[in-house]
Amino acid sequence: MLVRFERIPMAHPAWRNVVEFEHENRPAIDLVELQDESVVIVEIPGVAKEDIKITMEEEILTVKGERKTPGLADGARWIRSERVGGEFLRTIRLPHAVKTDAVSAELVNGILRIRLPKAEEARPREIGIK
To answer: What mean pLDDT value characterizes the chain?
Structure first.
């Protein structure tokens, strides 16, 4: 006879819930390096551009924002809620120096694209032979 055993923990460590929450609320990021620039692509559906702050310090790019959770109408109650709200913060170390005065960003359909032109000294160049 086979008996199915399911382990039900009596208590979860408090840090486990925090780590799981941070992971759920962390937007996915892609970093693509091209010859003259790098592009960071961040998935943040439902976040308005007014709720996003992008900063650069040396080769560190930070994207900070808030995913707002919808409120409920008076007398309503949640039956199921899987969307995660709250603040998020992503920090990325870039593989090269950036021309900071030429950085640009656009948000279209929940996809944030940040274009980071390489500084002249970081761009590949051909060296001629004399």
So the answer is: 85
